[in-house]
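About this split. The held-out portion is used to measure sequence recovery: a designer receives only the structure tokens and must propose an amino acid at every position. Recovery is the fraction of positions where the proposal matches the reference. Here is one held-out target exactly as it appears in the evaluation file.
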């Protein structure tokens, strides 16, 4: 099986061009290729598949083999691959994801015309409790309290096609993400589990984010998580319409006016190609 290793802001996946390759058991394959000692090493597996009415479909699996609906960093890399392989020079694309259709625009290219920066329409934030989903039947799940591992934390929840829990902390670099993250991921409040964003505010226009990602553990970046942070921060009046988010793997630019969809711009980088038995 031929594969492409790509990363967006350090959020790395193994990609398979399903226009050309066949994968019989993608869940099992995701676990094998993602292992960082016995496999290729990745946050998961993404299949790039044909899709009627769209340029391609992104079918995504976490490192533990579970399905995920949407990944912003992953979709930027899908856009890069489709652009560079099948539509060099084209600007706009439509992709089917587990969270519905998403659009992408190539905003920067290298000297050979290959995509380097991609802007995504991340879709509308969903704030209603049962639709995120949480077990709270409320129109918005903002500034609620959750207690885990001796920590009493204030959180806000939102769906960006997948569920997110946003928690603001004073010093995100020293916060015990590895201890607290999995406990919140599997908390009964979140029936489909949840991605957890730990955020330190530097200014209304700049934050630092660490993410405990559902099914993968702490990742170097999370695009839907960054969109969740932008949406929640704007709704709470903590951050503005344009927000630079510093993640372990680099920076993302988020734009959200409080109405409509969240826009995200970031890099998409091919790391290497190979064959996996």
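Reference sequence for scoring:
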């Amino acid at each position: 099986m031929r594969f492409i290793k790509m990363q967006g802001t350090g959020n790395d996946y193994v990609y398979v061009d399903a226009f050309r390759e066949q994968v019989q058991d993608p869940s099992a394959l995701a676990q094998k290729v993602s292992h960082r000692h016995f496999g290729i090493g990745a946050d998961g597996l993404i299949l790039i598949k044909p899709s009627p009415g769209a340029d391609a479909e992104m079918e995504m699996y976490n490192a533990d083999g579970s399905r995920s609906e949407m990944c912003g960093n992953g979709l930027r890399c899908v856009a890069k691959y489709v652009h560079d392989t099948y539509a060099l020079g084209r600007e706009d694309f439509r992709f089917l994801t587990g969270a519905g259709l998403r659009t992408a625009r190539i905003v920067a290219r290298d000297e050979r015309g290959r995509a380097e920066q991609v802007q995504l329409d991340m879709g509308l934030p969903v704030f209603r409790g049962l639709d995120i989903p949480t077990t709270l039947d409320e129109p918005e799940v903002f500034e609620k309290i959750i207690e885990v591992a001796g920590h009493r934390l204030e959180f806000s929840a939102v769906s960006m096609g997948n569920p997110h829990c946003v928690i603001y902390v004073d010093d995100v670099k020293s916060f015990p993400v590895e201890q607290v993250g999995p406990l919140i991921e599997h908390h009964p409040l979140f029936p489909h589990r949840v991605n957890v964003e730990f955020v330190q505010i530097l200014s209304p226009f700049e934050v630092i984010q660490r993410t405990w990602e559902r099914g993968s553990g702490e990742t170097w970046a999370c695009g839907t998580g960054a969109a969740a942070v932008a949406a929640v921060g704007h709704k709470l009046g903590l951050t503005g319409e344009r927000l630079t988010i510093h993640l372990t793997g680099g920076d993302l630019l988020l734009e959200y006016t409080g109405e409509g969809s969240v826009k995200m711009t970031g890099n998409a980088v091919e790391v290497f190609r190979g064959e996996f038995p």
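Annotator remark: The longest helix spans residues 72-86.
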